[in-house]
Amino acid sequence: MSPASLLPAGVSPDLLVEILVGLANVIAVAILFRAFSPKEAVNARAQAHAKRRRELRGDLLTQTRRSTQQRRPVTAMRGLLERLKLTRGEEVRKASETLAKAGWRTPDSLTIFLGVRLCGPPILGVFGFFFTPLLVSQPSTLILCLGALVGAFAGAYAPNLVVNNAAKKRQTAIQKQLPDCLDLFVICAEAGLGLEATFARVAREIAPNGAELADELGLTTIELGFLPNRQDALANLAKRVDLPSVRSLVNTLGQSERYGTPLAQSMRVLADEFRNERLMRAETKAARLPATLTIPMMVFILPPLFVVLIGPAAVQIVAALQKK
User: Fold this and answer.
1) Which run of H or of E encompasses 37?
2) What whole-number distance in Å separates Cα of residue 89 and Cα of residue 169?
3) Count of beta carbons in the 10 Å neighbourhood of residue 16
4) Fewest 10 Å CB contacts: which of 68, 147, 272, 324?
């Protein structure tokens, strides 16, 4: 059977080819017209912005709900502390300063710290009361009360220990990063940058290797921008980082600002002083090393050495006595 026999009656193959070619031409013209026709960029951009706005609104609502759910316990704790009048006083101010030294400066940090210090003793006291029978078989009432008392003391002093330890670690890290920071201060001062620009530049440069000091310098940069007196911003830096070297830096910057002395020269002298101080600390640690290693040597090195030296002779003596 030939393909021509499948066509309807009265339709020739040439006519079918012409129809298909015409249809292909129409489709090609439509595609070219669609491709070269001017696009409505304004409407497309408006639709894209509307879509992005809906997405952002949905993300914002989700984040707001999540933040509200997370802040409910903190809000309830803040209300309890305010009713008990535990958010005022000298002790709270000292706790706030210690939290700032540890790098915890969020608005909820003080509330969480005070809440943990308030709820810690009773919770750990009850835990110690019920945990004591697991350590002591058939404990008496006195032992149970002693376990509860130990848990209560741990709950009372553990928050302060954690915060003080975090503050000391942060200050130690800042102390190690400070000499390199002063070298950058010297470079920025010699380049002609002002005090605020110097702080911002140094904070940006040392951020990858010294996040703690970069955080403090960044906060000081913000305070230098909006506080009416620059000395207040420098004093806040010395208060947050309670280190003698930082106080020396703040005093030097204050004197340069007050009396107009060259900042680059002052920073160079201070950098040399800090470098010498770091070298002296290393020499002091090296000088203490023999005295520090005395007890470990007596406990862990001398007994095995005596065994190695005297052991064979002792074995020979014991063998000779057994033969006799």
Assistant:
1) none
2) 27
3) 13
4) 324
- Cα 313 to Cα 306: distance, rounded to the nearest angstrom: 11
Convert the pLDDT of each residue in 171-188 to its tens digit: 888 888 888 888 888 888
- Tell me whether residue 324 is in a domain: no
16 alpha-carbon distance from chain centroid: 76
Q: Cα dist. 280→170, 244, 275, 277, 314 in Å?
A: 22, 15, 9, 5, 49
**Block residue for tokens 């013209």:** 29
- Name residue, tokens 């409910």: 72
Can you tell me which residue has the tokens 């080819």? 17
- Show which of 133, 150, 168 is a domain's final residue: 168
What pTM does this model have?
Answer: 0.62
The C-alpha angle with vertex 256 and arms to 253 and 262, in degrees rounded to 5, equals: 115
Token output for 170: 């942060």
Q: Average of pLDDT values for 291-298?
A: 82
Q: Are 158 and 228 contacting, i.e. CB atoms less than 8 angstroms apart?
A: no
**What is the average per-residue pLDDT within 122-142?**
81
279 and 182 in one domain? Answer: yes
Please tell me the total count of domains within the chain. Answer: 2
Distance CA 294, CA 301 (A): 10
DSSP state at residue 2: -
Distances (CA, A) of 215 to 90, 98, 113, 199: 27, 16, 21, 11
Q: What's the full length of the chain, in residues?
A: 324
Closest listed residue to residue 233, CA positions, set 241, 223, 243: 223
The pLDDT confidence band at residue 159, using thresholds 50, 70 and 90, is confident
CA distance 163 to 117: 11
22 domain-assigned:
no
Give the CA-trace dihedral at 197, 198, 204, 207, to 10 degrees: -150
Question: CA-based Rg of the chain, rounded to a whole angstrom?
Answer: 38
The answer to whether residues 142 and 180 belong to one domain is no
